[in-house]
Amino acid sequence: MSKHYILVINAGSSSLKFKLFDELLREKAGGIVERIGLSGSFMDFKFGKSEKKTMISVKNHTDAIKGLLHALAENRIDFSLIKKIGHRVVHGGEKFIKPTLLTKKIVAELKNYNKLAPLHNPNNIAGIESCMKVLPQAKNFAVFDTAFHSTLPDYAYLYPLPYRFYEKQSIRRYGFHGISHQYVALQAEKKLKKKKANLITCHLGSGCSITAISAGKSVDTSMGFTPLEGLMMSTRTGDIDPAIAFYLLKEGMTPNEVNDLFNFQSGLKGVSGLKDMRDIMLASGYKIRGYKASIKFSNEQKYLARLALKMFFYRVIKYIGAYVAILGKVDAIVFTAGIGERNKDIRDLIMRGLRNKYKSLVIPTNEELMIARLIANK
User: Fold this and answer.
1) pLDDT band for position 178 (cuts 50, 70, 90)
2) Residue 217: helix, strand or coil by DSSP?
3) Domains and CATH numbers, the chain
4) 212-218 contact pairs (CB < 8 A, 24+)
5) Count of Cβ atoms closer than 10 Å to residue 38 Cβ
6) Range in 125-129, 162-166, 212-216, 290-294 with the lowest mean pLDDT
7) Is 220 exposed, middle or buried (0-12, 13-18, 19+ CB in 10 A)?
8) Which of 282, 302, 300, 301 is nearest to 290 (CA)?
9) What is the mean pLDDT of residues 242-254?
10) pTM for this predicted structure
11) Which helix (H) or strand (E) holds 100?
């Protein structure tokens, strides 16, 4: 077998995560470039067991790609052997539901979806265009977060709006975190030694989503037309009465202010004033090994932290209950992402809150490996 590498890129607005895999999909290197276009930019780079943080000048995503290639070269990785590059792209609409070989024409077409995911897709595309420029020998593939949810039935993905809004403006439930849900579902099937399992996968991190998986396929998911719908999240509202937006507009807020309120000032942060679940847990009276709060909590903060915590797991339990009703039989409830993987107290609160007993699994997500798997034979 000839030696080659697959590079996986997850580009954000001011950061770029990456992992390098060999032809057997063994992770060789990885890291993150932070503060792209800002002062104090740096790269955390991991190669084997060694880790190194380097301050580098990063004006744009192209500089970030060049920086990671320089780090690979320093560790004797021949980046001319990078034959494929997989890119996480958040929104692929209804058309892009499989890993897609990227050309300039396809990239131009993907830009049409920027309006559906304005916080994510433009940055994903910036990473793609940078790789095309810096690594012209490699084939670039897009893997879409929405793709795993393309199996939702029409009665689950349509909103009760006049049908023309779906036909003409593609307003429907798309769902997100699909790469993560797909990865942990496959890992769960291995642990359960059962193919086409019925699962409820809970991706609980800064962004949160839950997916109902029937016989291995996504049949419903909590996020919708955008990643705002669904669960209460770190700074996002999740499900609320849409008339609240109209009320706030009539009260004098602008559309941009309402959008900022719902996406960045609400959720756990909005209720408790604390964005980090660890601080909320400490303020609620829980202990977290190896973590100390940077502030002393007032009695009001403690009350609001407890309230935010109750709201969070109550809403998770409601979604799990709904998906139990949809699936009928559930082989396991799977927890992943930062809160789901690391916070046993949260998992216990959720599982105790369910009326019936279910098997629970904790599976660390690995979106980069899932992307590498999906493009390995392309």
Assistant:
1) very high
2) strand
3) 5-144 (3.30.420.40), 194-362 (3.30.420.40)
4) 212/323, 212/326, 212/327, 213/181, 213/185, 214/326, 214/327, 216/185, 216/189, 217/151, 218/148, 218/149, 218/150, 218/151, 218/152, 218/175, 218/178, 218/181
5) 10
6) 290-294
7) buried
8) 282
9) 97
10) 0.90
11) strand 100-101
330 touches 200 (CB < 8 A): yes
Confidence band (pLDDT; 50, 70, 90) for 1? very low
- Which alpha helices (DSSP H) does 274-336 contain, by range? 277-283, 299-327
Helix or strand run (H / E) with residue 347 = helix 344-353
Tens of pLDDT, residue by residue over 320-332, are: 999 999 999 999 9
145 is catalytic: yes
Q: Give per-residue burial for 338-358: e unless 16+ CB within 10 Å, then b.
A: bbbbbbeebbebbbeeeeeee
What average pLDDT score do residues 13-30 get? 87
Average pLDDT value over all residues in the chain: 91
How many residues in the chain?
Answer: 378
Q: What is the pLDDT of residue 249?
A: 98
CB contact burial 310-322 (16+ within 10 A = b; e otherwise): ebbbebbbebbee
Token output for 205: 């991190």
Burial class (CB in 10 A: 0-12, 13-18, 19+), 190: exposed
Sign of CA dihedral 149, 151, 157, 163: positive
- What's the rounded Cα separation, in Å, for the pair 255 and 249? 7
Place of tokens 């998911």: 221
Which residues make beta-bridge pairs with 334?
201, 361
HSE (side-chain half, CA atoms, 13 Å) at 151: 13
Classify residue 287 as exposed, middle or buried by CB count within 10 Å of its CB (0-12, 13-18, 19+): exposed
Q: Among all chains, which residue has been given the structure tokens 């807020």?
A: 253
Choice among 44, 78, 145, 348 that is catalytic:
145
Separation of alpha carbons 292 and 254, rounded Å = 38
> Could you tell me the two tokens for 249?
């507009």
Q: How many CB atoms lie within 10 A of CB 329?
A: 8
- pLDDT tens for 51-75 read 888 888 888 888 888 888 888 888 8
Burial of residue 210, with CB atoms counted within 10 A of its CB: 0-12 exposed, 13-18 middle, 19 or more buried? buried
Beta bridge partners of 21: 6, 27
Strand pairing category for 42-47 and 50-55:
antiparallel
